[in-house]
Every structure is written in C-alpha cells, then in structure tokens.
Amino acid sequence: MITRFLGDTTILLGRSLRHIVRSVDTIITTAVMPVAMMLLFVYVFGGAIDTGSDSYVNYLLPGILLITVASGIAYTAVRLFTDMKSGIFERFQSMPIVRSSVLWAHVLTSLVANLISLVVMLAVALLIGFRSGAGVLAWLAIAGVLFLFTLALTWIAVIPGLSAKSAEGASAFSYPLIFLPFLSTAFVPTATMPGPVRVFAENQPVTPIVSAIRALMTEQPVGNDIWIALGWCVGVLVVAYFLAISAYRRKIS
Known about the structure:
Elements: H1 2-22, H2 24-45, H3 56-86, H4 88-93, H5 99-127, H6 136-163, H7 167-172, H8 174-179, H9 195-203, H10 206-217, H11 225-252
Helix pairs in contact: 1-5, 2-3, 2-5, 3-5, 3-6, 3-10, 5-6, 6-10, 6-11, 10-11
Family: Belongs to the ABC-2 integral membrane protein family.
GO biological process, one term: response to antibiotic
Organism: Kutzneria albida DSM 43870
C-alpha cells in the first residue's frame, strides 16, 4: 500500500510540476512580486525606518520570506480548484490509484514551488547586501521553521481549493495571510506602533516566527520565540490537515 501511494503520488507530482513550469503568471507572482516588494522596502522605505539594525535587508528578509510563501500557496488552492472543476478528480477516482495521492501531490507541489521561490528570494537578498554568519545548525533550524510554516499554510490552502465556488474565491483566502506580516515585527519594531495595533502585532503567530528566523540569521539569542513559532506552526498544521482531509472525504464520497 505504501509503495503504491509513493508511486502514485510521484507520478501526480510530476504532472502538477509540469503545469507550474508552463504557467508564466504563477512564476511571476510567486517569485518576481516578492522580489519587487523587497527591493521597494530596502531602497525606498529602508532609509526612513529605524530598526536598530545595521542592515535593513537583514531585518526585512524573514518577513519577506513568509510573504513569499503566503503568495505561493494561493496557487495551491487555485490548482486544486481547477482540478475539481475540470472533472479530473472523478477520472482519478475511477483509476486504480490511492485516493489520497491526488491530494498529497498538490501539497508536495506547493512545497517544491515554494522552496524554489525561497531560494530565489535568498539569492536576490544576497545580491543586495544580506549577510549572515549563522552556522549550519542555525540554517537547518530556519529551514525547519519555513518548512512547517509552508506545510501549515498549504493545508489551509487545500480547504478553499476544495470548497470555493470560483478560482478567485479559492485564492482570496491568501490575502489576509499576505497582509499579516505587515502587522508584525517583519518591517518595523512593534514599539513604533499605536497601542491596539502593537498588542495585536505582539500576539499574532507571524511575530514569533519572524523573530525566531531573524535571531537565527543574525546569531542572536532566540529565547522562547522558536518554541512559540513551532507551536503555532504545528498547531495550525494539525487543525488545517484534519479540516482539509474532512473536506476531501466529503468531496470524493
């Protein structure tokens, strides 16, 4: 059963990845737009923002990486919605394949696509001045946090992908996720924010994730932020996974 699942998922993963390569607008949105945002903040707004950091790109990068993931997972929902509406799911169900492999192929496609986007973002950040003395273990921890964050958001994306009435509706869920880093420590310290906004920024999930990644990149003490970040990522992942699986079972039953 496991061998069949792995084989079916691999074949369907290849199919989904080919669709991404052929979709130029997906590549532009998931890679080029976050790059443009980073350049805008570094070269236009960076000089006016006091973060207490020697390099604004070092301060900014963790939040941009999260926005990159939030932008990318919108297409997971759209791809899933498109497959549902095209009838391909019904065709797959009539074939001798493991049913869950269809869903996992979309999830793995999201992980691969977002990995490419994150690598592109890191490369551009290096070109414009990002530097880090973090060691191998720190970068492995950063990769682990980003992996969990991407996986959690991907399973969130599965839910509207299965239940939306239109492609626009399938992708609309990502807008609050993209906006959330702006109300965190991603771009400015929370001390500069007005009272109610500061309270929200300091207690929402993106802030400890950004703070943990930034501390790891800059070789600063991580403190409790890493555990809070992991707690948020794992908690959201578990809830989103079970809700997505429940929605999937209703669709194919």
